[in-house]
Specification:
Blueprint lengths: L10 H10 L20 E5 L3 H6 L4 E2 L5 E2 L1 H7 L4 E6 L10 H13 L3 E6 L22 H21 L6 E4 L17 H18 L4 E6 L5 H13 L6 E6 L9 H19 L3 E6 L6 H16 L5 E6 L6 H4 L22
């Protein structure tokens, strides 16, 4: 991610969504809930929660009483949590230890967990995919080993501490590559080499977890097709295709214009590559909650329209408090309450 109405549905669409939502689970979490990664995910990235709480910020429920963000998102129907991992950040946030704290809270709330590896010391997205400082002089072979070692170290640590993981992203919004300059898109062989190293480790530690390859701009069908064409030509491994979708960053900035394009992209990728598709990042202006709910409801139905190949929708940091971060595409108002936009997740 680049930094910090209720609407009436046609009866046939609503009926289809209800049918698709009824698919069975397989497996159990420690909290007694299902962990199958193939069950549709109503998700939220909650990676900033520990940092926010350390800063003294408090979330509030509808009655303005202090509340745990995990309780608030679960009450909205969110059943899955996404957590980012950095390699050696300047502070303690998004280290493996910090991720474990958040993962335990997600587990104890009966939520499935997605781990999102950035393979950087800080934010990785299409505009910046910088190597961790400790890896800056590594050649391709050493970078490949470092990706494998970092992935193994983090996931083994989580597993040893009682955490089950349903999905793992090996790279975050790697549309323009990763671990620059060695992994830029003029070197797709290296991109595939790096992500395959992470993929193989995931399967060693969590055999049932699905590995996600994640690019941005889900509305851009041509670019998505080109990207996965090149990735596939270079024998890149993927279980689920992950897309970002922020109407704010689209050509028209109008979700009613752009969301149909996302459907085109998802259907094109599914038919071309035979892989399920998930929206792993979605966001809308926090101060337009009714419109945000309409957009989110619409994109959930569009992903579900893929049947078992529509794997879910994750909102990027609904708990991001704008007065704290300056980020305006979350779903928390100025009173530190989740907005009605998140009601779209109720199921």
């Amino acid at each position: 991610m680049r930094r910090f109405l209720k609407i009436e549905r046609h009866a046939v669409v609503a009926a289809a969504a209800l049918i698709l939502a009824a698919m069975p689970f397989a497996g159990e979490t420690a909290a007694g809930q299902s962990v199958s990664p193939s069950e549709f995910a109503y998700g939220a990235d909650v990676s900033s929660i520990t940092e926010q709480e350390a800063a003294g910020l408090k979330f509030r429920d509808a009655k303005k009483k202090p509340a745990d963000l995990y309780d608030l998102v679960k009450d909205k129907g969110i059943d899955s949590a996404r957590l980012r991992v950095w390699v050696n950040p300047e502070n303690k946030w998004s280290t493996r230890e910090d991720v474990l704290v958040k993962a335990k809270r997600a587990r104890d709330h009966g939520m499935r967990i997605m781990i999102d590896f950035h393979y950087s010391d800080n934010w990785a997205d299409p505009g910046k995919q910088f190597k961790p400082a400790a890896w800056k002089d590594y050649d391709v072979a050493a970078l490949t080993k470092a990706v494998a070692d970092h992935t193994r170290d983090t996931l083994a640590y989580l597993k040893d501490n009682g955490i089950d993981v349903a999905w793992v992203q090996v790279g975050n919004e790697i549309t323009n590559g990763m671990l620059w300059p060695d992994g830029k898109t003029d070197k797709f062989d290296n991109i595939a080499r790096f992500t395959n190293a992470g993929y193989d480790v995931v399967k060693q530690i969590y055999p049932n977890a699905e590995v996600i390859i994640h690019i941005d701009n889900g509305w851009d069908t041509a670019k998505a097709r080109w990207w996965f064409d090149e990735f596939t030509k270079n024998k890149g491994k993927v279980d689920v295709i992950g897309l970002s979708y922020y109407p704010e960053f689209t050509p028209s900035k109008n979700w009613r214009v752009e969301s149909p394009k996302v459907s085109t992209t998802m259907n094109d990728l599914l038919s071309r590559f035979g892989k399920p598709v998930m929206l792993v990042e979605v966001g809308y202006q926090f101060d337009q909650p009714a419109e945000g709910r309409a957009m989110l409801s619409d994109i959930i139905v569009r992903n579900k329209a893929l049947g078992e190949n529509g794997r879910g929708v994750f909102y990027w940091e609904p708990g991001t408090i704008p007065t704290w971060s300056g980020y305006r595409l979350g779903s928390t108002n100025k009173a530190n309450q989740l907005t009605v936009a998140m009601d779209a997740f109720r199921h």
